[in-house]
Write a structure and sequence with these properties.
Elements: H1 9-17, H2 27-35, E1 49-54, H3 60-68, H4 77-85, H5 94-98, H6 102-106, E2 113-121, E3 124-131, H7 135-145, E4 149-153, E5 156-161, E6 186-191, E7 194-198, H8 201-209, H9 219-231, E8 237-245, E9 252-258, E10 262-271, H10 274-290, H11 300-303, E11 308-313, E12 318-327, H12 338-348, H13 351-356
Signal peptide: 1-22
Keywords: Signal
Amino acid sequence: MPVRRLLSLCLSLALAAGPAAGDTAVATLRAALAAMPRGAVAAPPGTPLQVEFGEPARMGPVLDVHLAHGGTLDLPQVGVALGRALPAEMRNYVEVLTGDGLAAATGLTPGDIGSILSVSAPPERLVMAWIAPGAAGRMVAALEATGHAVDPRGPVTVLSRGADFAVDFALRDPANPFGGSLGQSSRFAVAEGVMAWAPATPLLAPVLAGQGPSLADHPGLQALLAGVDAAAVGAGGLVYALALVDGPSPDLLVADLVTGDTETGLLALAAPDTAAAEAMATLIRRNWAGRASPAAGRPFADLMPGEITVTAHPGTPAAVTLRRTLPRGADDPLWRNAAADGVLRLVMTRDLDALLAP
């Protein structure tokens, strides 16, 4: 049975509306992965495939508590939410987060983005976003006005500008999160409720074809998501997730989860089977208390004080999760989750290698 992707109105509307109450922490991420073709982005040997997902609306409880305690905002509420939820490459521009220039560049407003999924292995990148009703028409008009060639294909409009993987500094626009910071070439596919972007035509072709396996079929990601679901009970909504798969290290996922009163950082690691997961969990617990971080020169337990929970989740493949939940203070910055930052730092500084070493 082929996987429905961009042409699936049902999936588009389900994701645009967001998950229903009672859904698991990764329900919307799972649905997004089912729309993303597996193999569309090819990572070179030894390089992991980077998967990022965000759902800005999940920041709602944090913003509510912040404002209820007399807090103020430097950006519109939706811009603050985007600052936590967008893929890292897209979130660093004030013009995007405030909406200044975003509508002119893309037709979108910050509030139009319901959820977003990015898969990348530079220079290749494929982004899908589930957008508000009516946003698709505004996108097509804005992109045509900025020099994109228009190719209507029934319910989908394909728009393109520049040669594949081209960079034109004359087209640089920091208000455009889709390659605008470099003036990258653009290939958009836009339909009611959903859009896709890539810098080259071959990357977009599998989305338009709508057949074949999806990233939801990736065994490592399946194990990671099952582990996150089991470990995230009571942790609230998933604002942002970063997964690194198919690289030289174990497949992994870092999750930023919030309730409003608490924030959780969760690290999931894939293992070949249940026995390997149980051995990995034992190793992490031992090293957490007794080993120093090579990057900081201090024990892991001192760097990230407070309780952590390490759990092995059975399966083939299986998963191990490390969860750290912290209370959220009224004065804590909205743009970061201290618990998730600490977990992500383990990955980015290579401390994770020391944590997993015998």
